[in-house]
Design a protein that fits this description.
Order of helices and strands: HEHEHEHEEHEHEHEHEHEHEEH
Structural class: alpha/beta
CATH architecture of the largest domain: 3-Layer(aba) Sandwich
Shape: elongated
Mean pLDDT: 91
Number of helices: 11
Low-confidence stretches: 1-13, 15-23
Largest sheet: 6 strands, parallel
């Protein structure tokens, strides 16, 4: 009952914000927030944008989602500076590098503009961001290793993939999985696949042909997970090959149903768009400090893929 009352109370508070005409900042102008991401065209950000837009309507604010087309931390940091100069009231930033955004995060703080992280946080060095809504990436990597380990022969070699270099999230997941698997004597070959599923499929297929003893591909991101599944389906299906990785693209879910991808790890991108908007609005209006939220590491396999697929179709997973 206490949990129910708490949830109703929170819902009532949020409705009160929406119905109470709180569309303006204390300075009397509409609040404007901006999300700045890498790889803006990646399908992963679809549910993030839906969460952002749903929260913007609820909180009565305006939100823009932008970013770089490729992984370019210098350009992404410059976009943060531009957002500060353009007078945005709050910034949500995908902090994919532990040091590249320290200067602009401090600049935002000095200008009185709240900045929160979404999707990827900087766990390595301190910076002026106020909170983070994202997966605990190293722990998610450990989850991948733990889920995969029973199906990997001791002392065997596997393929491990990252779709891009220089993305701390992928490195953290990689290292988390390796930490678990090394206790089983597993070794690995790490490759960079490229940031699209088709590019990844080609690179993974080539690597598997060059290393015929490798039957398992563990991935760290959406593009390489989907690509690894496509490579196995097209060229290695029925040969004892399988992949596992991250995120919930329609292709990845289909390949789980087909038995090509054994499992994928969900990080609930919808809430990574939703909660930063709520936190920024509360900070701007009432000085309420944002709090970090773990987006989780749910395992999606053949056992629950049908239910999750329906939620994905609706844009919530």
């Amino acid at each position: 009952m206490a949990k129910y009352i708490t949830r109703v109370g929170v819902l009532g508070l949020l409705v009160a914000f929406t119905l109470g005409g709180l569309s303006a900042s204390p300075r009397g102008k509409p609040l404007r927030f901006i999300f700045i991401a890498p790889l803006i065209k990646e399908a992963f950000f679809g549910p993030v944008k839906k969460g952002m837009n749903d929260a913007a309507r609820m909180m009565g604010v305006s939100c823009t989602f932008t970013g770089t087309e490729d992984v370019n931390v210098v350009k992404q940091a410059e976009m943060v500076k531009q957002a500060i100069d353009q007078g945005y009231d709050g910034i949500a930033l995908d902090i994919i590098d532990p040091v590249a955004f320290d200067e602009v995060a401090q600049l935002a703080a000095d200008r009185g503009i709240p900045l929160v992280a979404f999707n990827v946080d900087d766990n390595a060095t301190p910076n002026a961001r106020l909170s983070a809504v994202c997966q605990n990436l190293y722990q998610a990597g450990q989850t991948t290793g733990t889920q995969a380990a029973p199906f990997i022969a001791p002392n065997s070699q596997i393929l491990m993939t990252m779709h891009d270099e220089g993305v701390s999230a992928l490195e953290d997941r990689l290292h988390g999985a390796q930490e678990v698997l090394k206790d089983k004597g597993v070794t690995w070959k790490v490759i960079i696949t490229g940031s699209t599923a088709e590019a990844s499929a080609g690179v993974v297929a080539k690597a598997l042909k060059e290393n015929p003893d490798i039957k398992v591909v563990l991935c760290t991101g959406q593009a390489d997970t989907e690509g690894a599944g496509l490579a196995i389906e097209r060229e290695f299906k029925g040969g004892g090959y399988w992949a596992a990785g991250y995120d919930l693209s329609s292709q990845t879910l289909r390949l789980i149903k087909a038995g090509v991808i054994r499992f994928t790890i969900d990080q609930q991108p919808y809430i990574q768009g939703f909660y930063p908007v709520v936190q920024l609005a509360l900070r701007c209006r009432y000085g309420i400090a944002p709090s970090s939220i773990d987006a989780g590491a749910a395992v999606i396999s053949a056992a629950n893929v049908a239910v999750v697929s329906e939620l994905c179709r609706k844009g919530y997973r």
